[in-house]
Each structure stands twice: as structure tokens, then as C-alpha cells.
Amino acid sequence: MSTPQTHQIVVSGMSCAHCVKAVTQAVQALDPEARVQVDLPSGQVTVDTALDRAQVRAAITEEGYEPQP
Fold first, then answer.
1. In this structure, are residues 59 and 26 in contact, taking their beta carbons and an 8 Å threshold?
2. Domain ranges of the chain
3. Which end of the chain is more exposed for a tag (fewer CB within 10 A), N or C?
4. pTM of model > 0.85
């Protein structure tokens, strides 16, 4: 993996604690060391990880949520 970096992504479709858990687990399935913070009211997901932005977005999309451009 590459150098750890921080990605901030706005994600549509999250509304509850289950959504937070699902997004967190999706990212951590690829990088168990990732730190994921979700702000439900704004839809902001902040991820500290060695994954690149495309990998984080793909993990969130696979979980059924919509990362914004």
C-alpha cells in the first residue's frame, strides 16, 4: 500500500447508524487500519487510509451508497 492520506468524500444515501457502520466496514475490509469518520447531516465521509481515492469510492459504491464527484 501507499503512504497514508486523507480523503474527504460527500456521500448520498446515508441516514442512520447502520449506514455509518456499513460504509466504515466497507472501507476497513480493504484497509483494516483505515480511520473512517462519518458526519450524517452533511454526508461527509473522512477517511485516513493507505488506499487511493478511487478505491475508497469503489468500496462505498459497492455498499450501495453514492459518492459525489
1. yes
2. 5-67
3. C
4. yes
pLDDT tens readout for residues 12-48: 999 999 999 999 999 999 999 999 999 999 999 999 9
Q: What is the DSSP string of the chain?
A: ----EEEEEEEES--SHHHHHHHHHHHHHH-TT-EEEEETTTTEEEEEESS-HHHHHHHHHHTT-EE--
Per-residue confidence band for 69, with pLDDT thresholds at 50, 70 and 90: confident
Question: Are 60 and 46 contacting, i.e. CB atoms less than 8 angstroms apart?
Answer: no
